[in-house]
Amino acid sequence: MQKDIFDEPPRKESTTSPNKGTRRASQLSVSSTGGLLMVGPNFRVGKKIGKGNFGEVRIGKNLYNNENVAIKMEPIKSKSHQLHLEYRFYRMLGSAEGIPKVYYFGTCGGKFNAMVLELLGPSLEDLFNLCGRTFSLKTTLMIALQLISRFEYVHARRIIFRDVKPENFVIGQISSKKEKIVHIIDFGLAKEYMDDSNEHIPYREHKSLTGTARYMSINTHLGREQSRRDDLEALGHMFMYFLRGSLPWQGLRVDTLRERYQRIKEVKRSTTIESLCEGHPEEMANYMRYVRTLDFYEEPDYEYLKKTFKELYERKGYAEDGVFDWTGRSLANFG
């Protein structure tokens, strides 16, 4: 399915400089040895497998252990360097379930910044298309329970994500132990919402749009500084996208990007939660009501949200079998 260019993230805010560890990593030498493009002493760069907001992703190989990796690359001459910041966020997040492992950060061939990561599987958007562009309630709840936990962890590390969309959530490699784990990727638009002294960033208005318009919160459309509540509201929009197959503010006919963002905002604001969640369990509407009433500074009650969905899952009699809608389908093209 052709991707709607109007759903690409709007402008990105300017960001702070990387920490010392990142600066040190970025100074590591990179070479082209024997005709091979290398990152560091042991990561060989292969073919392009994807494209992000600020560069491209290539498959690579760790020549020390013969394992495949993903290599995210960004032109050094780019006006807006984001990769070093993303690397910094991964270092802040450390090792945890659903967070990709990062192996290396350096430069590549003198032309690119490069970050070497764990190679993962297909995105939720890929799997959504594979399943006929609708997920069952069971699969949506399984995804929701994982992602609420994922954001609870990310927020506990003082980071807000700011770019919820199905393309930024991927399962582990096919036929691996991580195949049933939903990972969060691409922290290129992320931001720290608390400083080292646990002081929350101040509330501001007239902010430029950051994120993906289809899923972003209403407060983000209104130019308000984002916080934890906005990540969770965007998640709610994505959950309803999975259940409904589309959202009311998709497919709007306009001439310019500016008009598109304005119309999405208008339709999103005028669509009631009852209308958005009509025909689906009341718990989905309750989720949306809760996240939309959170205060800018308020810590969300993640346990309440997980408990709500867990109880719905059990009430429906769904088995704890780890079987998603895509389980058993041919995923050979994603291997």
List keywords for this structure.
335 residues; alpha+beta; seven-stranded antiparallel sheet; two-stranded antiparallel ribbon; 11 strands; 33% helix; 16% strand
Strand proportion, as a percent range, falls in: 15-25%
Number of helices: 10
In what order do the strands lie side by side in the largest sheet? 1-2-3-4-5-7-6
Low-confidence spans: 1-9, 13-34
Give the proportion of residues in helices. 25-40%
Shape descriptor? globular
Radius of gyration: 20 Å
Compute the number of strand runs: 11
Order of helices and strands: HEEEEEHEEHHEEEEHHHHHH
Alpha-beta content class:
alpha+beta
Main beta sheet: strand number and arrangement? 7 strands, antiparallel
Instruction: Give average pLDDT, whole number.
Output: 89
Between the first and last Cα atoms, what is the distance in angstroms?
20 Å
Explain what you see.
The structure is a single chain. With 335 residues, the protein is α+β, with helices and mostly antiparallel strands. It has ten helices and eleven strands. It has helices at residues 20-26, 83-93, 124-130, 137-156, 218-221, 228-244, 257-270, 273-276, 282-292, 302-315; strands at 32-33, 36-39, 43-51, 56-62, 67-75, 102-108, 112-118, 159-160, 169-171, 182-184, 191-192. Strands 1-2-3-4-5-7-6 form a seven-stranded antiparallel sheet. Strands 8-11 form a two-stranded antiparallel ribbon. A hairpin with a 3-residue loop joins strand 6 and strand 7. Helix 4 (137-156) packs antiparallel against helix 6 (228-244), helix 4 packs antiparallel against helix 10 (302-315) and helix 6 runs antiparallel to helix 9 (282-292). It is globular. The two termini are 20 Å apart. Mean pLDDT is 89; it is low at 1-9 and 13-34.
